[in-house]
Amino acid sequence: MDLRATRYETIGSTGIIFLSRPERRNAWTGRMHTEYRWLLAEAEADPAVRVVVVTGDPAGGAFCVGADARALDGHIAKGGYDPGTTPDIPMPGFGVHPAFDADFAYHFGLTTPVVAAVNGAAAGVGLVLACFADLRFAVPGAKLTTAHGKLALPAEYGLSWLLPRLIGLGRANDLLLTSRVVMTEEAHGMGLVNGLSDGPDVLAHTLDWIEEYLSPVARSSLAATRRQVYTDLHRDVAASVTESLDLLDDHMRTGDYAEGVRALVENRPPDFA
């Protein structure tokens, strides 16, 4: 695909998606959404990629400031919402569970962890994208807002479902009903942000965290565990326990499990496939 609103690079086993419309502060468009999904599908299919990081093009001075104002104006002209995407948009994460077959919910159907490195303002759909990532790290002093209330809109893309599960109902209502701006320091205190970087380079901070904490984990374990987490949001605890026992049986037959046990006995880091 001809990438015009994103960039992609790999560092080690991490694929990095840059939301890249710096002249518009990395504002979201249908083209950006299409490219983002295409890049996710490419990363999912690449055995060399263990983790995906999404961040804003540093030249844009933001993570993603939400939908492009020109696109917002276009909805008025068209008489309603237009996602700006085509029917042949890539479908990563679809077909796994009916509850995941929707915009942004498709993240839950991926096998590859997605981590957001929020390197500046994240508003509206930009915040939605960060929230659908598995983990979020942020630069200090950045502004976050749901934004929709100031445009006389409802909460976007399932954020009314997701935010209460991330930070609790009371805090979610605070952000959803007011659309007020919160700084990343406050968001960290709420649990919305997993960690803050020491300085402006949150991407480097995120990559270091991935290297220390995710790299030692078997790819098979990462994929199975995140699938359990998001499926469990849609089923009862007995079903979760039952499937976990089946998964234990399956995983204990793998070479990764045998290597993990050997490494534990030999008091060394495991060398997973």
In short:
This protein is α/β, with parallel strands linked by helices and 273 residues long.
Question: Strands, helices and their partners?
Answer:
Elements: E1 6-11, E2 14-19, H1 30-45, E3 51-56, E4 62-64, H2 69-78, E5 114-118, E6 121-123, H3 125-132, E7 135-138, E8 143-145, H4 159-167, H5 169-178, E9 182-183, H6 184-190, E10 195-196, H7 202-214, H8 219-232, H9 237-251, H10 255-266
Parallel strand pairs: 2-3, 3-5, 4-6, 5-7, 6-8, 7-10
Antiparallel strand pairs: 1-2, 8-9
The CATH homologous superfamily of the largest domain corresponds to 2-enoyl-CoA Hydratase, Chain A, domain 1
**CATH architecture assignment of the largest domain:** Alpha-Beta Complex
CATH class of the largest domain: Alpha Beta
Strands of the biggest beta sheet: in what spatial order? 1-2-3-5-7-10
Helix content: 40-55%
CATH topology of the largest domain: 2-enoyl-CoA Hydratase, Chain A, domain 1
Number of strands: 10
Largest sheet: 6 strands, mixed
Overall geometry: globular
Helix and strand composition category: alpha/beta
Order of helices and strands: EEHEEHEEHEEHHEHEHHHH
* First-last Cα distance: 30 Å
User: What is the radius of gyration computed over CA atoms, rounded to a whole number of angstroms?
Assistant: 19 Å
Structurally, how many domains make up the residues?
2
Q: Which key terms come to mind for this protein?
A:
2-enoyl-CoA Hydratase, Chain A, domain 1; 273 residues; 6-stranded mixed β-sheet; alpha/beta; 4-stranded mixed β-sheet
